[in-house]
Amino acid sequence: METTTAVLPPFIILDNHLEEWLREDIGRGDRTTQCLVNQDVVEGKARWIAKADGVVAGLPIAGRVFQLLNEKVDFTTLVKEGEFCEQGKVIAEIKGSLDALLTGERVALNLAMSLSGIATLTRKYVEKIEDLPSLFVDTRKTTPGLRVLEKYATQVGGAINHRMGLDDAVMVKDNHIAAAGGIGKAITKIRSRIPYPLTIEVETQNLEQVKEALEYQADIIMLDNMKPDMMHQAVEVIRQHNNKVKIEASGNVTLKTIRVIAETGVDYISSSAPITQSKWLDLSMRIN
């Protein structure tokens, strides 16, 4: 399985982040490399190798790290984004200024290992339900400053992005409901103030809340932390009332439970696990 939906954020957005992370690592200068290598004079070659099985993500971003240090660096990817690679596979080759290769190594590897870990775990979730209509969705539980990259990695793994930020869509959660004094009051206040074409999603925890969300014409209804039996009932109630309303399941989503949740007939299943619980995929760079 290879994803075809992942869209790499433009470098006009990413470059500020990458430059900041390079400055953090380099500080007042790469003491070791500057003592050993004349800048832009000595050229070198290196290979990137997968040291564990997993889905590779972030190679174009890693290549950009080196090119910000020296635009003449040639970073050639040997695998596709989203490709599953076995331990020992050479996934990229680099040639160019040895100074740039050595100085950019850690930032580039850190990013690719983190993103590949997210993509690898995401793929496991997606594969559990790939023969069912439900789609797997990420969440806003991301590392501050890394959201755009972490959500890119879930796409590489085969997931769909939920809203990127608070301005993407309206999601009325339990605390919003408490603050407004109920689902109906919350939706009524929000609908008169939001711009077209923002949708309204409401988090529900029982059938009474589901019915109230339907009464006030929520566009998307989230079934939060419901047990499968109640979720089945909720899906049936929603489908009978308005088949155009989208249904999202969230809470207690694991590799063991995701298929049972999908079998209830929900449209989307959201989870933060691929980002919050993933392990970095071990990659290494070897100078030839």
Architecture overview:
It comes from Calothrix parasitica NIES-267. InterPro entries: Aldolase_TIM (IPR013785), NadC (IPR004393), NadC/ModD (IPR027277), Nicotinate_pribotase-like_C (IPR036068), Quinolinate_PRibosylTase_N_sf (IPR037128), Quinolinate_PRibosylTrfase_C (IPR002638), Quinolinate_PRibosylTrfase_N (IPR022412). The longest helix is centred in the middle third of the chain and has 31 residues, at about 100-130. The protein folds into two domains: about 10-120 and about 280-285, Quinolinate phosphoribosyl transferase, N-terminal domain (Aldehyde Oxidoreductase, domain 3, Alpha-Beta Complex), CATH 3.90.1170; about 130-275, TIM Barrel (Alpha-Beta Barrel), CATH 3.20.20. The protein is elongated. Strand 8 (about 200-205), helix 8 and strand 9 form a beta-alpha-beta unit. The protein contains eleven helices and twelve strands. The protein has a six-stranded parallel beta sheet with strand order 6-11-10-9-8-7. A four-stranded antiparallel beta sheet has the order 3-5-1-12, with helices on one face. Strands 2-4 form a two-stranded antiparallel sheet. It is about 40% helix and about 20% strand. By secondary structure, it is an alpha/beta fold.
